[in-house]
Amino acid sequence: MFYNSENEPEYLLYVSFPEKNDHILSDISNILLLSLFFIFIIIIAFSGSLYQLIKQKKISEIKTDFINNMTHEFKTPIATINLALDSIKNPKIINDKDKVLRYIGMIRDENKRMHTQVENVLRISRLEKNQLEISKEIVDIHDTIDDAINHVSLLVTSKNGDISTHFEAITSEISGNEFHLTNVIVNILENAIKYSGDSPNIDVYTESTNKFFIFKIKDEGIGMSKSAQKMVFDKFYREQKGNIHDVKGHGLGLAYVKEIVEKHHGTVFVESEKGEGSIFTVKLPLI
Ligand code: ADP
Predict the structure, then answer these.
(1) What per-residue string of b and e applies to 56-71 under the rule 16 or more CB within 10 Å gives b?
(2) pLDDT exceeds 90 at position 92
(3) Is the terminal CB of the chain with fewer CB neighbours within 10 Å at N or C?
(4) How far apart are CA 193 and CA 197, in angstroms?
(5) Pocket test for ligand 1, best of 232, 257, 259 (most atoms within 8 A of CB)
(6) Residue 25 domain-assigned?
């Protein structure tokens, strides 16, 4: 300002804006908040889709395992039926009534096995769609447990195992469906046998409180990890991954157990230690 004769400024004017930052900030604050909000939404959307992706991958792995297991379990009966049919067609055998009857028996047994497999899968999907009607009557659950133990007794003896009962419940009448409750107990017992290796040693305890009937099925088998314990009641979950056939299964048994117990307004949970064994506890309301 005011240049002198040498063309140099005589005065200098300084301007300062003490509230410049505040002013700028208040100007862009709206847009800043909005961008932060959108960044937040993008992060949530991204992690959501990542989570879904991982979930889908797991489901597809589980499906492959399931299909492999199913195929394997169908392959044996189909092969046996084929062999039996070929044998019956043999002119030497077709006239031998006894042999034909024996082969027909084999075909019927294998057919029954496949039917049971399909029934297992259908039962769980019917349960899921709430199409399974559960009629309830008065059931003495001690009798149901005895009945279930009878079902698996051959399996236990063939493995040199033992099931002991410790019935300590004073009242044991509940309102329930005998057929499904027997299946529930058989499923837990079968698992205790399957996952126990040689000579399974199983104990069944019962007790009653004012409102509940409680039974525990304890095995001394392979047990399971803490993370497995959280998932065993999920559909298709199996601790052993892949196409493993030394211990057969589809991972549906315990999902069915949970559905049925919940339909009886009860609860089921597991306590287990890897290598030590497992205890499955079922709590059902008394009448
Ligand atoms: P599966 O047909 O595989 O036996 P389940 O639903 O009955 O399916 O069981 C799910 C998984 O829980 C099994 O694959 C197994 O890993 C684990 N499991 C169930 N019962 C026992 C048990 N008594 N001891 C150890 N692991 C068990």
Answers:
(1) eeeeeebeebbeebee
(2) no
(3) N
(4) 7
(5) 232
(6) yes
Residue 11 within any structural domain of the chain = no
Domain assignment present for residue 214? The answer is yes
pLDDT in tens, 125-145: 777 777 677 889 999 999 999
How far is 40 from 36, CA to CA, in rounded Å?
6
Domain that holds residue 63: 18-132
Q: Ligand 1 in contact with 218 (CB < 6 A)? A: no
- State the pLDDT at residue 242: 46
In this structure, are residues 191 and 148 in contact, taking their beta carbons and an 8 Å threshold? no
Nearest CA to ligand 1 atom 20: 191
3-class DSSP state of 24: helix
Is the C-beta atom of 192 inside 6 A of ligand 1?
yes
State whether the beta carbon of 222 lies less than 6 angstroms from ligand 1: yes
Residue 69 within any structural domain of the chain: yes
Which CATH number does the domain housing residue 94 bear? 1.10.287.130
Q: Please, which pLDDT band fits residue 1 given cuts at 50, 70 and 90?
A: low
Report how far ligand 1's centroid is from the alpha carbon of 232 (Å). Answer: 6
Which residues, other chains included, contact 236 with Cβ-Cβ below 8 Å and sequence gap of 6+? 62, 63, 65, 66, 250, 251, 252, 255
- Give the closest residue (by CA) to ligand 1 atom 14: 238
254 pocket-lining for ligand 1 (C-beta < 6 Å):
yes
Q: Report the separation in Å between the CA atom of 165 and the middle of ligand 1, taken as the mean of its atom positions.
A: 22
Q: Whose CA is nearest to atom 4 of ligand 1?
A: 249
- Choose one of 132, 161, 193: the last residue of a domain: 132
124 pLDDT exceeds 80?
Answer: no
